[in-house]
Amino acid sequence: xxxxxxxxxxxxxxxxxxxxxxxxxxxxxxxxxxxxxxxxxxxxxxxxxxxxxxxxxxxxxxxxxxxxxxxxxxxxxxxxxxxxxxxxxxxxxxxxxxxxxxxxxxxxxxxxxxxxxxxxxxxxxxxxxxxxxxxxxxxxxxxxxxxxxxxxxxxxxxxxxxxxxxxxxxxxxxxxxxxxxxxxxxxxxxxxxxxxxxxxxxxxxxxxxxxxxxxxxxxxxxxxxxxxxxxxxxxxx
Length: 237
Prior knowledge:
The chain has helices at residues 24-36, 58-68, 100-121, 151-174, 205-218, and strands at residues 15-19, 41-45, 76-79, 130-135, 178-184, 226-229. The protein has 237 residues and is an alpha/beta fold.
């Protein structure tokens, strides 16, 4: 059954920005937002966009925000970046698997980059209806961790969740209508999930994005600083 997309809590036309738009989920967000209305204005940022955003280059985040400011303010900003594994590393199953360079890479993409996105892009949110979403992961919930393993990925997402919670408290004072969310997309058919057992039963990225946008559409300032699933379940930190 096809689920209808609802964006009625946002002004029309919608001004949106997707960071990490070259990835499977990011590209699906761009498609959905553009298909929702031909009048919507959707900006895409990634390592090869103009301007580029590369989380290994700190200044690229600030420069991109400066250049995008003239195209805002934005009603919706989504950070869809994330890394679980690379060409030369996989998620750690035990302590003896931990490697310093692996930890640095995972935290750079999952935590440090998104933190600076919040710093530089939160001021670009529309003052009346502005939502910023950080894609997180259920395995980043400390309370929900019952299986262990995946050390750096879990820890980097737990750190991201803390950054979201802390920034949301600040934004309540400085941007009272802003909404900042951590959102778990579930297991989606992308390169991130492909090597794992869950990848065989993962959902299509376009379907996953419709679910997430319908959750985002419902969130107001009183829900800012919380952690939700694509099914609108609030997750424990």
